[in-house]
Design brief:
The structure holds 2 protein chains of 2 kinds.
Chain A (H helix, E strand, L loop, with lengths): L1 H12 L4 E5 L26 H14 L3 E5 L9 H10 L3 E6 L6 H9 L4 E5 L4 H8 L4 H14 L4 E6 L8 H10 L3 E5 L19 H9 L11 H4 L17 E4 L4 E3 L9 E2 L5 H5 L6 H7 L21 H8 L7 H14 L1
Helix pairs in contact in A: 2-3, 8-13
Chain B lengths: L1 E4 L5 E4 L2 E6 L4 E5 L1 H9 L4 E2 H11 L4 H17 L3 E2 L1
Antiparallel strand pairs in B: 1-5, 1-6, 2-3, 3-4
The chains are: A alpha/beta, B alpha+beta.
The complex binds iron/sulfur cluster (SF4) (2 copies).
The site of one iron/sulfur cluster has 14 residues of chain A, from helix 9 and helix 12.
Amino acid sequence: MIQEELFEITYKKNIPLITVFELTNRCNLKCRHCYLPKNDKCSGSELTTEEIKRILSQLKRAGCLHLVLTGGEVFLRDDILDICKYAHKLNFDFRIFSNGNLITEKITRQLAESGISGVEISFYGRESVHDKITGVRGSFEKSINAVNLLKRYKIKVTIKCLLMKSNFNDYPWLIRYARNNGVSYRFDPTVAPKNNGDKSILKHRLSNQQLKRVFGDKDLVGNVSFEDRKGGGFSDWSNDLFCSGGHNSCGIDPYGNVYPCLQLLILLGNLRDKTFSKIWHPGNGSKLTQLRKFKQDDLQVCNKCTYAENCRRCPGLALLEDGNLLGPSSLSCKMVKVQCDKNH
Amino acid sequence: MKIKRNNKLPWRVIDDTVYIVNPASSYLYSLNPLGRRIWDLISKPVTLEFIIDKLYSEYDVDKETLKDDIEEFFRIMGTHHLIAN
Ligand code: SF4
Ligand code: SF4
C-alpha cells in the first residue's frame, strides 16, 4: 500500500525512485545470452570511484531510494566495497546483481558490514547446464559457494535465472535448490537482443510450448519477472503499455551515460558533462520530456489490440528489437498470447 | 535516555514524506509531516523532553496530549527498530 503510494507519487513527479547502475561491462564469464556486445570499446573509460560517489550523491538529492549495482561483474571493480559503504552512508536501499564467482569470505564479511539489502546471484541450472551457459567450467561451484557464504553472513540472497531453451528443463531443480536453502528465486523469460541490436542471441528464447508451461506453473507464480536484468526487478509495478522508465526509474552505464532504463537505450546525457538533475529535468523539447508525454493513444497498433489489458509491453524491447518505440514489442505479443490462450 | 534515528536503515524524504525501508522485512514505512519533523530532530541523539519542548514551541497543541502522542510514536518506532537508543 505505501509501496504503491510511493510508486505513484514518484511516477507522477518524475522522481528517480529506482536506479539501476552498471558499474562495469567487464566480466569474468562468457554467458552465451549476454546482452553486452563483446569488445565493447564504445565509450571510453569506466567511471572512477570519485565520479561514482559524486553521482550517488546527486541521485540521493534527486530522491533515488532503491539502487541496484550491476555489471558486467561488479566484483571486478577493486572499489566495489568502498562504493557499497558510500551507498550505505547515503542511506540507499541497495542491492548487487552478480554471478558470485569472485565473492570470497573476506568480501562477504565486508558486504555484511556495508548495510547491503541483498545480493542476487545468477544461476542457470545444475552444474553441467550452468557451466555450459556461462562458458566457464567451475563457475557453478563458485556461485554455490557465494550463496553459502552470503547466507552464513545473513545477507539476503535471491537466485535469479534467465529461462532459455537450454536450461528450461532445470528450472524445477533450481526451485528445489532455492527452497532447500531458504533463499528466494526469480525467473525471467526475456532474452533481449544485445545492446547494439544484434539479434543472434534470440535463438535462445523459450518456445511457445515452454512459455506456456512457465505461465501455467504454480511454483512460478509471483516469481517470474520480465526484463528483470534491466529494470532492476521493479518493472512489474508499471501498469500500462508504457512503463516506469524515464519517470521513476533510470539506468546509468559504466561510462556515465543516463538512460530511461538500461533496456530503453535512449541516451539522455552523460554525467561527466552534466549533473544528474540537469539530465533528468531537461527543458521542453528534449527527448525525455517527449518520452514522458507519450500516452496510450500514441500507440496506434497496441491501442486497438485485444490483448492490451494483459500485455506487459516493454517499450525498450519494442525499440531495440522491432525498431519502433511506439509499436508493438514482438516478444511482448508472443508472451501475452501464450499467457492468455492458456486461460482459454 | 537519548533517542536517535536508526541511521542504518535506508530512507528518503520524497514529496514531504519520509519513507524508511526495513531491508530485513522489505517493509516500507512512511512518516507524515509531523513524523518528518521528529525524524529531523532525532538525526542526533536527543532527549524526549527536548523533542516535546521543541514541538510544543512549534505547534499549537496541548502539552499533555503532545507528550502522550510522542511517547506512543516512539513506542511504535521502537517496536519496528526505526530508532536507536
Ligand atoms: S523499458 Fe522495459 S525493462 Fe525498462 S522499465 Fe520499461 S518495461 Fe521495464
Ligand atoms: S500484444 Fe503486442 S500489439 Fe498487443 S498491446 Fe501488447 S505489444 Fe501491443
